[in-house]
Every structure is written in structure tokens, then in C-alpha cells.
Amino acid sequence: MPTATKPFTFDQPTHLKEDPMPINPDQYRDTMRHFPAGVTIVTVKSRGEIHGLTVSAFVSISPTPPLISVIIDHRHHGHEMMEHSDAVFAVNILKEDQQELSNRFAWSQEDRFALGKWGTAVTGAPVLEDALAWLDCTIYSRHTAGTHTIYIGEVQACNVPEPDLKPLVYWNRDYRKICD
Description:
It contains four helices and twelve strands, in the order ααβββββαβαββββββ. The protein has 180 residues and is of the alpha+beta class.
């Protein structure tokens, strides 16, 4: 008969018991900048208004049902819009030559939708017709996590208009290109 093995355990470091925040936000951001991420523009439609923002906190969750997640800071207008019951959104995955569009949706106060070829799919949220790929979503669930909210979206439609091109990547506080 096999013998039971003792579960792996470890002692929690003393500094974690005494201080619930052993690092400051700058240390955290400095560490996280070393993780490369794809760049997306998340567009939101709510109460007849549209808005968009550059987001790198995006991930695939499940193929059945088709679920994705985006994470948005509570200070951003997009967060306020995503909290409305009628909110829908699209994730537009950018190509490596769309840095200007990424910057526009990250920083510009001008009409963000003045650049790019925009349309809609199923939900009415704007989709970038010449994106590398896009996913059109309804909100499946919302989860508050610190200063951000995790939005899980159920994909209603998706497309890959430019399947042979490379994505825009952000790493170490700058845009990067993927080499073959």
C-alpha cells in the first residue's frame, strides 16, 4: 500500500506577517515592465456613448464559452462606462505599425476615433477594421481587484483581418518588434 506523503509547506517570511504591502507601487511597476505584452485598443459603447483606451492587460480565458478578460483602472473614463448595465466592448489587437493609434488612445484628448477605419460587428462597440484581430463582447462578469476592475467578456463575434502580420508589443516602457 502506498504511503501518504506530507504536503509541501513553507514558513511565511517574517516581513509578510508584519507588513501587508512590502513593496511600493513604483517597485511593482518597475518589475512588471519586464513582462512583454500585446497592445490592444478596448472600445466601449454604453448609454449611446463610445469611448476607447489603450490596454495591455488582456487575456484569453476560455474557448467554451468564448471568454476573454480586460483589466481597467478605476480612474479611467472607460471604467465608468463599463460599469453601466448596457455596456458592451470590443478588443482590437494592434499590428506592429499601429503605434500612433495606440498612443492616440492612451494619451490624446482629441477625437480618438478620427484615425483608423472603424465599424461595428454584433454589439455596436467600435471595431478597428484593419486591426490584426478583434473580438466583440458583452460583459459576462465584473470583479474588483485593488485599483482596477477585471471585466470578463463573452465573445459575440471575432475576426482576424490581417492574419499574416505581426502584433504590436510593449516591453520595458517602449514598443518592440517581433523578429523572425
